[in-house]
From TrEMBL, chain A:
Subunit of the oligosaccharyl transferase (OST) complex that catalyzes the initial transfer of a defined glycan (Glc(3)Man(9)GlcNAc(2) in eukaryotes) from the lipid carrier dolichol-pyrophosphate to an asparagine residue within an Asn-X-Ser/Thr consensus motif in nascent polypeptide chains, the first step in protein N-glycosylation. N-glycosylation occurs cotranslationally and the complex associates with the Sec61 complex at the channel-forming translocon complex that mediates protein translocation across the endoplasmic reticulum (ER). All subunits are required for a maximal enzyme activity. Pathway: Protein modification; protein glycosylation. It is found in: Endoplasmic reticulum membrane. The lineage of its organism: Eukaryota, Viridiplantae, Streptophyta, Embryophyta, Tracheophyta. This is Dolichyl-diphosphooligosaccharide--protein glycosyltransferase subunit DAD1. Belongs to the DAD/OST2 family. The chain crosses the membrane at residues 30-50, 56-80. Component of the oligosaccharyltransferase (OST) complex. It comes from the Eukaryota. It is a multi-pass membrane protein.
UniProtKB/TrEMBL annotation, chain B:
Component of the oligosaccharyltransferase (OST) complex. Keywords: Endoplasmic reticulum, Glycoprotein, Glycosyltransferase, Magnesium, Manganese, Membrane, Metal-binding, Transferase, Transmembrane, Transmembrane helix. It is a multi-pass membrane protein. The keyword ATP-binding does not apply. It comes from the Eukaryota. It comes from Brassica napus. One of its GO terms (molecular function) is metal ion binding. Residues 35-431 form the Oligosaccharyl transferase STT3 N-terminal domain. Residues 548-606 form the STT3/PglB/AglB core domain. This is dolichyl-diphosphooligosaccharide--protein glycotransferase.
Length: 107, 725
């Protein structure tokens, strides 16, 4: 049972890896940004666990802004991804500018 | 186009029909704009009854506090307002006003005031406060129009705007002079919902941003924002379960939740509740669920292989549930996540307040709603609502699912608490508008296809399948046109009755400023009782500036705003023990009450008495609540002591404790010598309809300071202790 699950896990990992490397580069950059934001948030949580939560305001604002940028970056990725059929755009270029502008404002 | 003019009649009529169509579009736009303009004006003027009949003044109790804070804001500025510590209420505790109010209403009114002053209209802030509610009601009708357009079509939007302009459920809390949080909050609520539905429909970040800001406005305006923060996640959950999830939903909800939460925490009164209170945990749970859900969806898309995906699914789902469960359990058990507060818990369990928190149960607005209230406030919308639900279910989309959920949940809560009929009103109006619009559209299309039949009958390809089906219907039922006309007349009759009912209700029931009472005299002329303001101005002009006034908490805001004196308790009711102390003082014998009053530094006592005028909302009728609240904290006060066989009486058969308690003495002092009604003995209490039991009242530690002209408000001075020699 354990052997089959570990074999399954390895297969899983390999197919995920191969599928992921097929995504275009600009999306990978956005993904990297998301990971960075989440990582920053985790560091802040660890710091709070060590040092204590006073003042709570700064902890909350720090963590939430990280989560916020992560989420917004994911939204950007969704809207930019050409394979996403729901976001039909007339011309990708002009709408891309609009989307990026919205992202910047939201941040 | 020009060559076709010479062709036979058919094409000639089609040409003129085409040019008519162009003009029809412009005509339609003109019609829509003019209808909206008329509805806007109607919503404003329907709320002006009390300003025309009495004067431009603030109604009720709570608005006086809002008025006082707005006055402070305009005089002293933002910094002072934000850091205000009020020592004039809740003596000797004081109240941190800057951190315990919802600033949206005051800031809005102040902004309007400053804009007007900038434009050189030097109005008094009171006028702005009085007219804020009707102004925002008009704005709500515009938002309702756009919302209706989103859910169904422009016709439904127009009907929704017209319905909500005069709906009594909304008018009751937004009449001119009712300067309360709900005036602005309903506008913010509808705006947030509209922007969110628009965001889900289009999936664009801009609309989601808009809805986050709308949510921020709502949080700043009213405590009822908890409804939004629970309804929206519930809606997302329903969409996920029914399989209507899409990327648009992800974008819309995430943006709104995170940004909305960050913005909401800027309001000091809300503070950290979004991450610490049990009422907000639903939203966070759905947020995390969404992340897991969409992550799984993305992985599934990447893998394109079901077997591996199943393993992955198993691992992630179990771990996610474990982590989530542990976090929630630890949070709730350790007390970090506070449980649902009493006010909102009593919505889920209506019997909770009566047993545990008498103050919440005593407010008349918090009682469960009777059917008559529903009929009074909604009229024909009550049966149009199920009809509208039917239409919504026929054409299910993301938007209609939302409005159905909003309607059903808000109606459930409206059934639990009378006050929440206000929150249900926009949903009921919108859904009824769908019913009306769809019905009228069907009926008029029935009428119109009849006229088109002789012209388009010859050309086969022109008519759509709908008109051809109507052609076959026409041949089988020749009276359909008459039936359609009859039904249309019926619909218009119903709507006109609705309008008449709404105007009557507004004029008779919801336009009275409770601070000024009116009655019909013996000759049919109108008599105005302005006793409240008379008493408050007496206080303002005839007492020392540091005098402290003790009264029941209902009148606290008015005393501080108009009388400008320090009060012991007021309508904020944040300190139950303090109120219970006052309740105990009012229901004890005079000696014990004197000790309590000396400990609180009370100089004056104010009571409201309706025995001479027959005014039934006076302190004697509220007395049992004073006993219950006092008894809830001080067991020495027992309710059965004041009742006789479970009955509350003030005549000769009343219990001895009742006949000698402070409230009785203060209300009925010197009343035993008064003849109130022809043919009745002296001391006849017109509000209770009995002759009072104890006519010979002597006060030892208090003396009468002032009684208003109709004996409605009575003020007593607390005498300093006698010299011990």
């Amino acid at each position: 049972m354990v052997k089959s699950t570990s074999k399954d896990a390895q297969d899983l990992f390999r197919s995920l890896h191969s599928a992921y490397s097929a995504t275009p580069t600009n999306l990978k950059i956005i993904d990297l940004y998301v990971v960075f934001a989440v990582f920053t948030a985790l560091i802040q949580v660890a710091y709070m666990a060590l040092v204590g939560s006073f003042p709570f305001n700064s902890f909350l604002s720090g963590v939430l802004s990280c989560v916020g940028t992560a989420v917004l970056a994911v939204c950007l990725r969704i809207q930019v991804n050409k394979e996403n059929k729901e976001f039909k755009h007339k011309t990708v270029v002009t709408n891309l500018r609009g989307i990026v502008a919205m992202f910047v404002i939201a941040v | 186009m020009g060559a076709k003019k010479a062709s036979p009649d058919l094409l000639n009529s089609s040409f003129s029909f085409k040019s008519l169509k162009l003009k029809t579009k412009q005509q339609e736009l003109l019609l829509r704009v003019s209808i909206l303009g008329l509805v806007y004006v109607l919503a404003f003027i329907a709320r002006l009854f009390s300003v025309l009949r009495y004067e431009s003044m603030i109604h009720e109790f709570d608005p006086y506090f809002n008025y006082r804070t707005t006055l402070y804001l305009t005089e002293k500025g933002f910094y002072e307002f934000w850091n205000w510590f009020d020592s004039e209420s809740w003596y000797p505790l004081g109240r941190i006003i800057g951190g315990t109010l919802y600033p949206g209403l005051m800031v809005t009114a102040a902004l309007i005031y400053w804009t007007l002053r900038f434009l050189r209209f030097f109005v008094h802030i009171r006028e702005v406060c009085v007219l804020t509610a009707p102004f925002f009601a008009s704005n709500t009708t515009i938002v309702a129009y756009f919302f209706g357009k989103e859910i169904w079509d422009t016709g439904a939007g127009l009907v929704a705007a017209a319905l909500i302009a005069i709906c009594p459920g909304y008018i009751s809390r937004s009449v001119a002079g009712s300067y309360d949080n709900e005036a602005v909050a309903i506008f913010a609520l509808l705006l947030t919902f509209y922007l969110f539905v628009k965001a889900v429909k289009t999936g664009s970040l801009s609309w989601a941003l808009g809805s986050a800001f709308g949510y921020f406005y709502m949080v700043s305006a009213w405590g009822g924002y908890v409804f939004i923060i629970n309804l929206v996640p519930l809606y997302v959950l329903v969409l996920l379960i029914t399989g209507r999830y899409s990327m648009r939903l992800y974008v819309a909800y995430n943006c709104m939740y995170i940004l909305g939460m960050l913005l909401a925490m800027q309001i000091r009164f809300v503070g950290f509740q979004h991450v610490q209170s049990g009422e907000h945990m639903g939203a966070m749970g759905v947020f995390l669920l969404m992340q897991v859900f969409y992550f799984l969806d993305w992985v599934k898309y990447q893998l394109n292989d079901t077997k591996l995906f199943q393993t992955f699914l198993r691992i992630t789902v179990t771990s996610a549930i474990l982590v989530g469960g542990i976090a929630l359990g630890v949070g709730t058990a350790s007390g970090y996540i506070s449980p649902w507060t009493g006010r909102f818990y009593s919505l889920l369990d209506p019997t909770y307040a009566k047993d545990h928190i008498p103050i919440i149960a005593s407010v008349s607005e918090h009682q469960p709603t009777a059917w008559s209230s529903f009929m009074f406030d909604y009229h024909i919308l009550l049966f149009l609502f199920p009809a509208g639900l039917y239409f919504c279910f026929k054409r299910l989309s993301d938007a209609t699912i939302f409005i159905v959920m909003y309607g059903l949940t808000s109606l459930y809560f409206a059934g639990v608490m009378v006050r929440l009929i206000l929150v249900a009103t926009p949903a009921v109006c919108l859904i009824s508008a769908i019913a009306v619009s769809a019905t009228v559209k069907n009926l008029t299309s029935l009428l119109r296809t009849k006229q088109k039949v002789p012209q388009t009958g010859s050309t086969k390809g022109v008519g759509s399948s709908k008109s051809s089906s109507k052609v076959t219907l026409d041949q089988s039922q020749p009276f359909q046109k008459n039936g359609a006309i009859a039904l249309l007349v019926g619909v218009f009759y119903l709507l006109s009755r609705y309008a008449i009912h709404c105007t009557w209700v507004t004029s008779e029931a919801y336009s009275s400023p409770s601070i000024v009472l009116a009655a019909r005299g013996a000759h049919g002329n109108r008599i105005i009782f302005d006793d409240y303001r008379e008493a408050y101005y007496w206080l303002r002009q005839n007492t020392p500036t540091d005098a402290k006034v003790m009264s029941w908490w209902d009148y606290g805001y008015q005393i501080t705003a108009m009388g400008n004196r320090t009060v012991i308790v007021d309508n904020n009711t944040w300190n139950n023990t303090h109120i219970a102390t006052v309740g105990r003082a009012m229901s004890s014998y005079e000696d014990e009450a004197y000790d309590i009053m000396r400990s609180l530094d009370v100089n004056y006592v104010l009571v409201v008495f309706g025995g001479v005028t027959g005014y039934s909302s006076d302190d004697i009728n509220k007395f049992l609540w004073m006993v219950r609240i006092g008894g809830g904290v001080y067991p020495v006060i027992k309710e059965p002591d004041y009742l006789v066989n479970g009955e509350f009486r003030v005549d000769k058969g009343a219990s001895p404790k009742m006949l000698n308690c402070l409230m009785y003495k203060l209300c009925y002092y010197r009343f035993g010598e008064l003849v109130t009604e022809y043919g009745k003995p002296t001391g006849y209490d017109r509000a209770r309809g009995v002759e009072i039991g104890n006519k010979d009242i002597k006060l030892e530690h208090l003396e009468e300071a002032y009684t208003t002209s109709n004996w409605i408000v009575r003020i007593y001075r607390v005498k300093p202790p006698t010299n011990r020699l």
